[in-house]
Amino acid sequence: MEPIDIPLLTWGEPDFDQSLRERLAWESVSDAAVEKTVAEILAEVRNNGDAALLSYTNRLDRRSLRTALELETPSAELENALHSIDAEQRLALQAAAQRIDAYHQHQKQQSWDYEDSD
Prior knowledge:
about 120 residues; mainly alpha; 4 helices
């Protein structure tokens, strides 16, 4: 598997704005190259299952997981994280989750047409 170099952006660095703009400039990315990379990743995960998933997770997320079970975040940790943020952020996340759920419930239907209430 070829190593993937993911540059780190650090807020406050003098070139942060320019670096961010460059990374967000999707028109400069070759669609064919992106599609090829995604196809390779999907094929590897189909062929090698959890081993490939763990390999990509460890490389891209800089983790050192040994089993797929380690990918699961314990409920207590999620609950603690939820209660560690202020009420406004929590409400915003809950509203986003509801909107995402509503959108995907519509995907289960016959039609892909869906218009958000906003």
